[in-house]
Known about the structure:
- The protein is mainly beta.
- It has 2 domains: 5-48, Monooxygenase, CATH 1.20.1280; 53-362, Neuraminidase, CATH 2.120.10.80.
- It has 6 helices and 24 strands.
- β9 (161-164) and β10 form a beta hairpin.
- It starts with 10 loop residues before the first helix and ends in a 6-residue tail after the last strand.
- Residues 3-48 form the F-box domain.
- This is F-box domain-containing protein.
- It comes from Brassica campestris.
Amino acid sequence: MESSPINRLPPDSLHQIFSSLPLRQIIICRSVCKFFNHLLTSQPFTEIISTRPPLNLLALRPPHHHRHRHAANPQPCINVYDPDENRWLRFNLDFLPFRSPQPVASSNGLIYLWGDSVNSVDSSKSLVACNPLTRQFKVLPQLGSAWSRHGTVLVDSVNRVMVLTELAALYYSGAVVANQWLKFSSNLPSKPRSPVLMSTSVFALCDVGSPWRSQWKLFSCRLTSLAVTHTNWTCLEKHEWGDIFDIIKRPRLLRGEGESKLLMIGGLKSTFSLNPACSTILILRLCLESLEWEEAGRMPLEMYRGFQESSKFKVFGGGDRVYFSAKRMGKLAMWDCWEGWRWVDGVSGYGDGLCRGFVFEAKLTLMQ
């Protein structure tokens, strides 16, 4: 590349040329040579394309057996799936000075992960925000190790962070005085299931039933309520909903499209008996403005047969795409609200086939 005529062009001209490429092509060009990588990761170029729409990808969490085997994963990375191109990508995380990083959430181009400090002799973990495309990171204020074991990390579209457990909640935003976490009592009736942070509120499912029969309810809490000592959770329910929570087995919540839609996914019960079989997997959508439910999707029966034979499956994703994995499946099922259902092949590294993930909106933006 040293003798290439392209080196004779001034950086501003090169920036204008490459800025006309789609973000996918820019990422590919960065791996061509050191010159391109330096040019396309520079601050001036990143500022030019900072307003470019993100890539809507799916990031997979690392397998459980990698968490305590540092030698098995000498170069930490995160596997992502591009549904628009139907291809798998890999982003290295070797720029992070942490052992065994565990990605758990993402928002606005950043990935949030738990990491062990290289110099730490204990088991304490740090919550880190990073952008694998720009290879930048920021360590959030220190937390106790119990939060990484029992807390669920939630992030909204403006990178406000919450770590939620059954008993307590931690809340952090860049504007917090003294750069500290704010701690509050959760006051939930049971352990929150699949909580979601969106539209200035937190939503979670709680089982308020008996030990022998589950009864799920939807709870919400506005972020403004965090200013009081006892977090004020409200049970969302309407007479018109009828038996909406009784027809779904083991429901999960996911963020829907935009900031006004919430998805609930679970098995569609065939009967109202104590432990009924399910006929398929149902996706329901709640409009947070009108508080009305509608059916968004129903897994085809031929696809559901693979999940019917599995004792356990996971649901992840959000927005206009939802993904499903199951033991011994070897592939993912994907629901696209515009294109319907299809299989996603190429999942590897998961011994039992059961994997989890989250939406990663990849962006070439510099961290503040």
